[in-house]
């Protein structure tokens, strides 16, 4: 009887103790620490919330539990140690540390020091300080991603010489890339709301083993707000509200979210609204960027009017609305269910660079707008944890997305308006497994199925009579499908050496029907099919001989299957050229190697150097073509040479990323990120040209002061010059986006911006952010962009937490 009593007492004690929340705080000031990684030898990882708390009831009693954070010394303890400390952990601040944050971009929550590839992470705290206006600006704050813009309502990242459909976008583990992602610059990333991102991660280099097609230059992984569970059935409510105003575009922004949680159920509800006026550029810079006129419709006629303010970029105004709804149900420690609904809608907005294109000295277009852009996602996911024969944990994800995009175009003095509308429905199923094989070996494997249904329509409207008729569509009616299986193995040789290797097989297909365009274009075919497969692999290692330096090496192959945009679009690619369909396409492949070294020197300096090289083979590029034996046709009233996307090139990209962090004083830190890349593309005649998506030297320097409630930062973002000779051949004729050098040739001048950012937290409930951007009022335009950046800009925001 006595033995049974003590056994019952011991079981109850363990249950009660392990059901408690662990509180992690700074030993210096007892303030809670957000983002602390809690990891075990079994590979489980958890992260503390904004209150420094984490529910460890999902973890069994462990002999070793590690607490890690980039700004604090790591601490190891055991389950019994947690009990003895009353579930309170205090970490000691450290001067400089190697980056060991938890990332999710690999589809599993892992410490970045266990991933061979280069990873950078942007936290929610950084978003509070920098207050980016959209998700593209959010990526730019990293200092490692270059962003191109053709209009204010946009932003196209460039990573290591790749852009657009050679990069992969992921939100909560679901790929956003669609079958109409184009090779030119795209603006789809603005569908995402930076206010709801708990973390944003960029994985550099080839990542096709996990993500399949398109992950050639890198993966941008966005993790949105997670519903938060608590230990008791008592309902807890948390929320956040933000209002912001910027002067350069008369921004009016509002955001509100609320999080409701109990023991088994939790909810998130979020709403954001942005309104932007036409963007005003700076005073000092190239006169070529000034806009002296724009087109107005007056009394039924197109009139070219002079602008009162040539620094105002008309038309560039737009607005946007986003909402996020999530519900989570965790009935026990094995099962965790979640449903998420994302929705984003923009107003129509002018493609600013096309409004600057001239013909015979006058604007070529009276109207060139992207119509309202919509994105919706329904996402059902669950995880199941159990030490079964084939897995310890399974993650299931089923997502449906709807996209609507349109283009509204009318030539100057034309009464015919051409509108093209694309509607896509995409479906994705992912099942991922994790299995611990002994103490040193972990196997990750899974399967993915993706399908895209493309519906493309064209319409011609007489703007006087408002009569409409069917017009040319941008794409055929098409179905794009991809099925893949992968396996990745992590082997820990010792505390110093880790090896990671993976393999993926992928089958992809396209079924395209061109009958919707046969009445408008003399295509020699009405149907096209693609059926092909790709095999990709990766191998990498992480060597950590001591706590003050780490060496990573990674080799990976990646592929991009042809999509509907490659195979089937018709559009004016550049002045005097038109791109037509080509059904004879195959996948392109990238072979990437990168090596990175992170080293702490002394107690106050950390240096990171990443060097990489990529070979792109069988590249899909635009080349001269023939249509029914013709090398030139009339398109929108302009004689245009015929081109098509073809597997006709190779490209080499290589470069380096250099980062430095110096603790000048106790509360004063200087950081610098520098990026240099060179890309060369093989041309049709065997010569080489600079690659279009390899930007010039760029980076950011920051001097940040942090103490108690204050964070103040002075930073400068900059870009080197891209001369006419270093421009890609297809870029050299784009008069509407580049400045003129002394010889009258197009080029992208060097520029910099000086910016001041500050954040003051009155308490845990109230904070204000104030910034002055482009203090010297520079008139600048990032490389390959069609719109200039903001001039002198005052930004203010108020944040309320409850």
TrEMBL record:
Chief location: membrane
GO BP term, example: siderophore transmembrane transport
Record's bilayer topology term: Multi-pass membrane protein
Annotated signal peptide: 1-19
Keywords, comma-separated and alphabetical: Cell outer membrane, Membrane, Receptor, Signal, TonB box, Transmembrane, Transmembrane beta strand, Transport
InterPro entries found in the cross-reference section: Beta-barrel_TonB, Beta-barrel_TonB_sf, Plug_dom, Plug_dom_sf, TonB-dep_rcpt-like
Compartmental location: Cell outer membrane
Keyword Membrane assigned: yes
Residue span, TonB-dependent receptor-like beta-barrel domain: 337-775
GO MF annotation, one: siderophore uptake transmembrane transporter activity
GO CC, alphabetical: cell outer membrane
Pfam families for the chain: Plug, TonB_dep_Rec_b-barrel
Top-level lineage group: Bacteria
Domain TonB-dependent receptor plug: 113-219
Family: Belongs to the TonB-dependent receptor family.
The protein's name: TonB-dependent receptor
Organism, scientific name: Psychroflexus maritimus
